[in-house]
Structures are given as structure tokens and as C-alpha cells.
Design a protein that fits this description.
It contains 7 helices and no strands. It is mostly helical and 178 residues long. It has one domain.
């Protein structure tokens, strides 16, 4: 009976470990879509959960350092983009904390996906802004905000989708899916 509870406990812990990253990605995308903001809690949650889970996977100290190094590099680059007003601060923090999960091996793929998805998202939003909102939609704050020219684009959606596409390739996912 004790063995049964241990097996169930391990299974539940693996499921929680596997779902933490998708939870934060979904939260970031929906938050950015509805409010044009990405909470620092999301980036902090990604960072903390990465550090906790990295203890349980077969990650060498060198791999761990590479994950941190790549994340810091992305943080520097994205904050430079933020300083020029090209992306939001939440996007910069989300990209860096997401890349922490990927390390050097999956980061390039993540950035390519995010760029392609972000470009498509931007084109769609800019095209939709050329048309007037249907009757009644201007009363819904988040729709009105998305439709307003100069508001920006909720790029967190693209970052989250790209993150979810790359996540199955990570060392953390591979470890806990067994």
C-alpha cells in the first residue's frame, strides 16, 4: 500500500513539474492579450521553478551555467530593445526567463518561432485596426485597447506560443515525461 502511494505521489509530482511551464506561458499570453501587461510574478515564477526543477534533472553544472548565461544574454539584448521602445519591459523579462528553461540548445529555435509568430500576430493586428470595430465591441476595454493605433502589440502571446512549441525539447520536459 505504501509503494502504491509513493508511485502515485511521484506521478503527481511529475505532472506538476511538466505543467508549471505551460501554466506560466498561458498566464503570460492571456495577461498580455487582455491587459497589455505581463506581471513580474510570471517571470519570477518561471525563474524559481526552473531552479527548483533543475535540481531533479540530470543537468551538469556546465549546462546549468549555460542556461543562466543564455538567459542573461537575452535579458541584456531585450532590455536594449526595450530602451529603444521596440518591445515592452514585460516582454523582455518573459523572454529571458523563458530562455532560462531552454539553455543554448533550444534558444535559437525559440527566438525564430517567436519572431515568426510575432510578425504574423503584428500583421493581423495592424490589418484589423484598419477596420472599424463592430457595434458594441468598442465598449469592451481590452478589445478597444487592442484596436487602438499606437497601443502596441501583445507580443507575450508570440513568446508564449513559441515557448510551448520548444518546451518538449528541453531537458526538464524530457526528464519528467518518462
Amino acid at each position: 500500500m505504501v509503494v502504491y502511494f509513493i508511485i502515485i505521489g511521484v506521478y503527481i509530482m511529475n505532472m506538476i513539474a511538466l505543467l508549471i511551464f505551460p501554466f506560466f506561458m498561458a498566464y503570460a499570453a492571456s495577461s498580455d492579450f487582455l491587459t497589455m501587461r505581463i506581471s513580474n510574478k510570471i517571470s519570477l515564477g518561471l525563474i524559481i521553478s526552473f531552479f527548483i526543477l533543475s535540481v531533479f534533472v540530470d543537468m551538469s553544472l556546465n549546462q546549468f551555467a549555460m542556461h543562466i548565461g543564455v538567459s542573461l544574454l537575452v535579458l541584456v539584448v531585450t532590455f536594449a530593445l526595450f530602451s529603444f521602445g521596440w518591445i515592452g519591459g514585460g516582454d523582455a523579462k518573459l523572454a529571458a526567463s523563458t530562455v532560462l528553461w531552454f539553455g543554448s540548445s533550444e534558444t535559437l529555435l525559440y527566438l525564430i518561432y517567436a519572431s515568426i509568430i510575432g510578425g504574423i500576430l503584428t500583421i493581423i493586428i495592424l490589418l484589423l485596426r484598419k477596420f472599424p470595430l463592430p457595434f458594441g465591441f468598442d465598449k469592451i476595454a481590452w478589445i478597444k485597447r487592442l484596436h487602438t493605433a499606437g497601443t502596441g502589440v501583445p507580443y507575450g502571446i508570440a513568446l508564449a506560443i513559441a515557448g510551448l512549441l520548444v518546451y518538449p525539447e528541453t531537458i526538464i520536459f524530457s526528464h519528467f515525461i518518462k
